[in-house]
Amino acid sequence: MRDKRLVAASFSRAAARYDQVAGLQRRIADQLANWLPQGSLDCALDLGSGTGYANRWLSERSSQLLNIDLAEGMLAYARTRGSKGLFIAGDAESLPLRAQSVDFICSSLALRWSEQPATLICELSRVVRPGGRLLISTLGPSTLYELRDSWAAVDQQQHVNHFVSPSEWLDVPVSLDLVRHHQETQIEYYAEVSQLLRELRTLGAHNVNPERRRGLGGQAELKSMMQHYQGYRTERGIPASYEVHYLELLRR
C-alpha cells in the first residue's frame, strides 16, 4: 500500500506551484461542474479540495461547504486564495464526519489515490444522506501507459503510479446507485519527455508507490527510457494519455 504520508507531503510541497501546470486538472473539474444538480445544496463536501479550484461554484450553491484534503499544505494554500467554507485535513477512506452528515459530495481527481475500493466506497456511502448525490472524476489504469511501458522496457521497477479502476468501487454492495458514467481519453502533448516528468513533479503526482525506485534511477536508465518513449512521438509531440472517468452516484 502507498504511504499516505508521502502522498500528503508531496501535494503539500506542490501547493504553491500546482495551478501553474494544472490545465488538464482544471478542464476535468469544469466538465464535472456541468453535472451539478439544479437548486441549492444544504451541506456540500469538496473531497480532495486541493488549491480550491472548485470552491467558487460549490460555495455559491451550498449553505455549508466542507473542504477536506489529505494535504494540509493544499488546505493552507486554498485559504490564502480566499476559498470559503470549513477546512479539514482528512483521509477519504476514514472521513472525520458523522454518518449521513452531507447531502452532496464533489471529488475531482482525488479518489484515484485510494487503493482500498471497498473501504472508500463504504465511507462515501456512510456520510451521505439518503437522496444525496456524489459527483466524481477519477483516472483509470491505462493512465500514462506510454510512460509506464517505456520504463518497463528498461527495468521491472514500478516508476509510475497505479490507479484503481472505478469498476472496483461499483462492485462493492453499498447503498449507492450509478446514475451516469462517462469515460474518455485525454491526451496531453509535450515537446520532450523531460517536460512531462517536470510537470508531474510540479503537480506532486510523481511516483509514491511503496515499490518505487528511489530517485529517477541512473542516468543510463533514464536516457534509455526517454529513447523508448520517442517511439510514441506524433506530429503534435510526445503524448501522455489519461483515462478519465466521470461518475454520478445517488444514495438510496
In words, what does this structure look like?
The chain has 252 residues and is an alpha/beta fold. Helices cover 34% and strands 27% of the residues. It contains nine helices and seven strands, in the order ααβαβαββαβααβααβ. The protein has a seven-stranded mixed beta sheet, sandwiched between helices. The longest helix has 15 residues, at 4-18.
Give the class from helix and strand content and strand pairing: alpha/beta
Tell me the strand percentage band. 25-35%
Mean pLDDT: 93
Tally of separate domains: 1
Let me know the largest β-sheet.
7 strands, mixed
> Mind telling me the C-alpha Rg?
18 Å
- What is the string of SSEs from the N terminus onward? HHEHEHEEHEHHEHHE
The largest sheet has its strands arranged as: 3-2-1-4-5-7-6
Spell out the CATH superfamily.
Vaccinia Virus protein VP39
